[in-house]
Amino acid sequence: MHPLYVALICLLLLLAFTAFVEAQGRPRRRFPVRFAVILPSEYNNPEFKTLPFSLEKVLPALNLSLERIRKYLPQAEFVLNAEDSRCVYYIGPLKYVYMYMDGKVDVFMGPVYMYSLAQAARYSAHFKVPSLSVTGYQERFLLQRKVEFYTLTTVTGNYGKLTYFFDAIFTRFRFKNMGIIFQEATKTNLKCAGEVNVDQCLQIMFPLFRHFRNKNFTKMTQYSRILKNSSMSDYEMVLKKRERDSRIIVLCASPDSVRDIMIKAHDLNFDNGEYVFFNIDLFSR
């Protein structure tokens, strides 16, 4: 686990605990602060080892964080209560309810996958219990932050923020059109494919496409889909389509696909100074 990631978790835990203590008044004796961690378990489902987040990956980092925090807050007794969401979109939120009714939670951590997180965050708002997640990239979590998800804290950026970035660039340099090329999600036989393999490029490009289609200064915004197994001839066809209507091209695809697209763009003389390419890299690690 990256040290920066561990440090960030430490900070979040410290802030959550501080807020809890201030709300309850400073205690004179040790009392428990209970964290509910709801993620898929690799032990029960070995196929989940390919997932970026699981109980087996996250719990060691959380335990390390709590060890550090105990040095500064000896009056607190931190308790981790972990539950397996089984990577099923309705199991995680149900575990939220069960753990709350059993009095096992002061702070929710997880789920991290979109459909589970959306439901669980609504429950945590209803229960008035803070909720932390390392995901929540989708635009809805930003737009409904003060309505549906006001107890949810996400520690990463939101896809909707990218719209503001490109809006500022287009305004500053007076760009007038945009072409979007994005890669569709790869289908898989993984048990929780519908939960995990959300089409990330579609999620990030749709707010961008919608925003610039509605802007008065943008003449035209077009998009093209590509597949992970697309050939160089497919890339050539897509680039020639965008050549007719765009000078600013935004890419969202795997690193290998972006490399092939740029090689083909060079072959088609797109590096003649008349075109600008932006690459949104979601997949490199």
Tally the beta strands: 9
How many structural units, i.e. domains?
Answer: 2
As a whole number of angstroms, the C-alpha radius of gyration is 22 Å
Chain-averaged pLDDT? 80
The CATH superfamily label of the largest domain reads Response regulator
Order of helices and strands: HEHEHEHEHEHEHHEHEHE
Q: Major sheet, described briefly?
A: 5 strands, parallel
Q: Poorly predicted ranges (pLDDT <50, ≥5 residues)?
A: 193-197
Helix tally?
Answer: 10
What share of the residues lie within helices?
40-55%
Structural shape: elongated
CATH topology annotation of the largest domain: Rossmann fold
Beta-strand level of the residues, as a percent range?
Answer: 15-25%
CATH architecture of the largest domain: 3-Layer(aba) Sandwich
Organism: Biomphalaria glabrata (Bloodfluke planorb)
Subcellular location: Membrane
Signal peptide: 1-23
GO molecular function: peptide hormone binding; signaling receptor activity
